[in-house]
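Quick question about two entries, pasted in order.
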Amino acid sequence: MRQQLDQPSISSLAHTADWEIQHDSLQKVTFLGSGQFGNVWQGVWNNTTDVAIKELSGGMYHM
């Protein structure tokens, strides 16, 4: 059973979430563009699968 929080918890949004893949399994190939929240790259995951890599801007990590 999950604990109910009175307010959002930074630890609940941590970069070590169960669904997140290891950063070293990604290879950036081509820069596609940038926007308000960061950059987007064409990349490869595990040397087998083409993916889009969304990279948040540094300011997005601070609240």
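Here is the second entry:
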Amino acid sequence: MDKMIEQWIKQYNQLDESTQQKLEESFKALDLDEISRTYEKVYVNPEAIDMQRITEVPYTSKEELSNDAIKQLEDISYETVMDGQAAVLLMAGGQGTRLEYPRAKGTFSFDGVSLFELQSRQIKKYEMNGVLPVHWYIMTSDINHEETIEFFNEKEFFGLPKENVHFFKQEHFPPISKEKTLLLTAEQKIMMTPNGNGGIFSSLASSGMLDDLKSRGIKHVFMNNVDNVVVKVLDPVLLGVHIKDDNEVTSKSIVPKEGESVGRLSLVNGEKSVVEYTELPDGSEDKFKNGNIGIHVFSTDFLSKIAEADMPYHLALKKLEFLDEDLNASKDEVLKFEKFYFDAFKLAKKHHTLQVDRKGEFSPLKNKEGKDSIETAYTDLKNEGLI
């Protein structure tokens, strides 16, 4: 044990006995084989993807649907929701760092209305005779879990029944140095960071939430991010398409602006995926017309399947603060490994995309100023009459 931990934690012998004992407990809980495999596969010997073999994903434009068709989809959706067969899954593990707001991002407010409240209002509208048929599953992270729960309690769950709101934490994976050593935080603990949005499926299962929603007879799960301020939670047209076509995954997209750096829903070597803007073949950036906006509906059966799938890690080079070999504070580029939820798309036998107009559908809150900023989000909220 000592030899192994000394290989992975170079500062180990410089630490006091109490700290060593605590580190040993954390170290034992790590899957060193998985960490080593990930390091070799993702950093040392990464597989190249032939990005020349990208084609447009099959899609339907909402504009092409007749009023009668839309009404039919909305009716299907409403009946399903009121029957308790649809739930909402929210990704809310981030902080408002880029907004210079040092709290859980979902607590950020416009005119006293938080991002969480904007979405809760849309869920509450399905309440009838004091009964709400919708359950809301919210994925947090270690950095904001307690704060998020406290905020919901302070706001009395925005009028939602407390038993309909479920919180669970995103799983974590250790970042490591380029020399394959673990990093220590300023508190002399092994550094762990969220394992990417693709960890949502295994986290849903390991937390018991997947079993919970299955036990409630939920068959369809609407997933979205916390920071799209105009998101249509449980969008009846998207949900209706998903149910009517019996899809495993149904995605919502927008036509990207020229040069807009959103990922593109596409086929890579015939498999469904999302290709980052920077990875598209030169000269083809504006040929792919389905920008990914992080809104998808999954069948519960498909969630069960992908929760057990071996989702690949992707490499992100990040500058993080940690203790160097002399236990001095340092900030340097390290290896952070993340899973992406769209890697699950290739496992879906039935996946379709609904393309919509961005107005009233997509207004991300990413920056303090400039594009996708507090100002642009506020303007869109005002224009949509949401505040």
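Reply: The first helix runs from residue 2 to 8. The chain has eleven helices and 19 strands. Hope that helps.
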